[in-house]
Design brief:
Structural class: alpha/beta
Largest sheet: 7 strands, mixed
Mean pLDDT: 97
Distance between the termini: 7 Å
Radius of gyration: 15 Å
Shape: globular
Strand content: 25-35%
Order of helices and strands: EHEEEEEHHEHEHEEEH
Number of helices: 6
Number of strands: 11
Strand order of the largest sheet: 5-2-1-6-7-11-10
CATH topology: Rossmann fold
CATH superfamily: Class I glutamine amidotransferase (GATase) domain
Helix content: 25-40%
Oligomer: single chain
Length: 188
């Protein structure tokens, strides 16, 4: 049976931060499922930088169907989880079903990949305390408030938790996550 990986996301997730790990992990041989608050076609976004702006801009991105709703997820069916960024984590952190899913992965010490604003979700379940992480640089204070040591780096590995700043760091993020996956949950 092929090892399964769960991506948890919603509307306004960063397109590249959902679809790059989705494709890369499938390429590696994993069975990848996308879960969201409900089964529906999700609307992702593109964040980019424009001259003269102090922060990123947001434009409509790709659409993609969610394979299942958070309420349908059995965390025991999955060997790892990916938490993309974008704006989705701002509201997803309030979802009690998603918090239960995330807690299960941390309680079982399964591999977790988080990027950009994704760490807002792991902070919401108090799973960053005492850990080293990175995130979108504007979240440095949020990560510190969650009890983490923030590092401004392409990818930070703390045990089975692999974090990254944003989509420009994808290659380093997935390289480190695949190293953890191959050790903890190899493709069979």
């Amino acid at each position: 049976m092929t090892a399964k990986i769960l991506i948890v996301t919603g509307d306004a997730a960063e397109s590249l931060e959902v679809l790059y790990p989705y494709q890369r992990l499938r390429e590696e041989g994993y069975d990848v499922h996308i879960a969201a608050p409900t089964r529906k076609k999700l609307q992702f976004v593109v964040h980019d930088f424009e001259p003269g702006f102090d922060t990123y801009t947001e434009k409509p991105g790709y659409t993609w169907p969610a394979d299942l709703a958070f309420s349908e997820v059995d965390p025991g069916d999955y060997v790892a989880i990916v938490i993309p960024g974008g704006r989705a984590p701002e509201y997803l952190r309030n979802d009690p079903e998603l918090r239960k899913i995330l807690k299960s992965f941390f309680d079982s010490d399964k591999p977790v990949a988080q990027i950009c604003h994704g760490p807002l979700l792991t902070a919401a379940i108090d799973s960053l305390r005492g850990r080293r992480v990175t995130a979108y640089p504007a979240l440095e204070l949020d990560m510190q408030a969650a009890g983490a040591t923030f590092q401004d780096a392409e990818a930070v590995v703390d045990g089975t938790l692999v974090s990254s700043r944003a989509w420009p760091d994808h290659s380093g993020w997935m390289r480190e996550f695949l190293t953890v996956l191959r050790a903890k949950a190899p493709v069979t």
